[in-house]
């Protein structure tokens, strides 16, 4: 019988891994992907949808390309992992035995991390940190903010999915408000962090393009978030009480997807430690954990990173199961962010295993004061990246 790979989670991590193993092993490995949703909605570029620069439909991707590559796709959730018997238990009751398992379940939101907020309140104060219906709710609420209205974004503590994401989101909200006759609206970002990704670049861009519209409240200024009240649309910090906000976007603390934690693959941080040479779990050598759920050393939690980690795991799985040649692990990432539709900035790097973790080997970041033509070219790169990576993930 052919050796069996089961992949749980059909996002950038899981779909890439399943596709690469199926493609490169040319039928020598039996590859099954377990993913409940028939269509994947990308979080990446969902801020562009918010800004009116992309359609919602353009964020949707199906799994036909994986099926064409020979991946068996099962649209169920994995409800448990039986590590002793090496089998994935499906929500429908079935069992999938595996020789190697790749887990890429993404994040879970910590609904208890923001006092006053809960899962029941997520349609009123949306997170839109998992894409789909939430993304559409946030867009509808943004489009209903009146001129002079108040938006509060509650930013998450580290580590979290997409470090520049909350700040790109604020930029795209300001762009919509400014260009749709609502330039007197205000966006307050209540942040538990003392600094944030690409901070100098964002703050320079906000001053130049959205003067007076975006206010970033570091913890020493806000004196910390105390609570939110979804019924009255109130946000209370130690410094100020914001009442009757037109929109409150709560981005809570995060942790590895439940299936990885329930399988005992996370440590006390609630994220999954991995071997940087292979992305294999530190808890179980037959299981690889990739993407947002993993502890990625110097890499951020991004779709680019998940796709890069997936290729390393796929190579190691082929080496383990059919003796294919494995090369030393190498990783890459770039995160683009929009300040205006014409003004994009980026940060990224190359990474390799060192001292037991994934270490940055070289990095780069956009500079303040760059000429507009360069920023436009960076945005062209960003659009090209989306097309290329979704083709690489989904075929
Ligand atoms: P996910 O994409 O979350 O995929 C996990 C999949 O696993 C899901 O489809 C889920 O249904 C499935 N799953 C979960 N549990 C189970 C289970 N028990 N059984 C079966 N399936 C299961 N990244 C970038 O690189 N560039 C960007 O510009 C960018 N912008 C972003 C903007 C925003 C607003 C946000 C929120 C994120 C952004 N990201 C960006 C980050 C990116 O979306 C994530 O890092 C990426 O999706 C992680 O991929 P993943 O495979 O680890 O997890």
UniProtKB/TrEMBL annotation:
Pfam families reported for this sequence: FCSD-flav_bind, FCSD_central, Pyr_redox_2
Keywords of this entry: FAD, Flavoprotein, Signal
Annotated ranges, domain Flavocytochrome c sulphide dehydrogenase flavin-binding: 329-394
Domain FAD/NAD(P)-binding: 4-116
Domain Sulfide dehydrogenase [flavocytochrome c] flavoprotein chain central: 135-252
Protein name according to UniProt: NAD(P)/FAD-dependent oxidoreductase
């Amino acid at each position: 019988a052919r050796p069996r790979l089961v992949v749980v989670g059909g996002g950038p991590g899981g779909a890439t891994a399943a596709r690469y193993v199926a493609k490169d092993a040319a039928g020598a490995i039996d590859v099954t992907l377990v993913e409940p949703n028939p269509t994947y909605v990308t979080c990446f570029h969902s801020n562009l949808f918010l800004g009116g620069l992309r359609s919602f439909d353009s964020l949707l991707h199906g799994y036909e390309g994986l099926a064409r590559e020979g991946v068996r796709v099962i649209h169920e959730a994995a409800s448990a992992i039986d590590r002793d018997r090496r089998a994935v238990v499906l929500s429908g009751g079935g069992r999938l035995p595996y020789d190697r398992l790749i887990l890429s379940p993404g994040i879970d939101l910590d609904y208890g991390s923001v006092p006053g907020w809960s899962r029941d309140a997520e349609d009123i104060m949306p997170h839109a940190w998992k894409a789909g219906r939430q993304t559409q709710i946030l867009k509808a609420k943004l489009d209903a903010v009146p001129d002079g209205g108040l938006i509060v974004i509650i930013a998450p503590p580290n580590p979290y999915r997409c470090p520049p994401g909350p700040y790109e989101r604020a930029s795209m909200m300001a762009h919509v408000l400014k260009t749709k006759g609502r330039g007197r609206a205000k966006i307050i970002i209540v942040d538990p962090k003392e600094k944030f990704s690409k901070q100098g670049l964002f703050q320079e861009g906000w001053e130049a393009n959205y003067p007076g519209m975006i206010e970033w409240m570091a913890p020493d200024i806000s004196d910390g978030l105390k609570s939110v009240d979804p019924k009255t649309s109130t946000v209370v910090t130690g410094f100020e009480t914001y009442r009757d906000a037109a929109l409150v976007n709560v981005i809570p603390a995060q942790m590895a997807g439940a299936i990885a934690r329930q399988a005992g693959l996370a440590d006390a941080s609630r994220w999954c430690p991995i071997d940087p040479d292979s992305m294999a779990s530190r808890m179980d050598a037959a299981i690889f954990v990739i993407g947002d759920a993993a502890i990625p050393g110097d890499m951020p939690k991004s779709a680019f990173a998940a796709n890069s980690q997936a290729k390393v795991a796929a190579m190691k799985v082929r080496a383990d199961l059919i003796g294919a040649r494995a090369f030393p692990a190498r990783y890459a990432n770039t995160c683009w962010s929009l300040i205006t539709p014409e003004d994009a900035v980026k940060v990224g790097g190359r990474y390799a295993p060192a001292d037991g973790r994934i270490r940055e080997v070289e990095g780069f970041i956009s500079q303040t004061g760059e000429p507009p033509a360069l920023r436009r070219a960076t945005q062209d790169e960003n659009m090209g990246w989306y097309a290329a990576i979704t083709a690489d993930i989904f075929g």
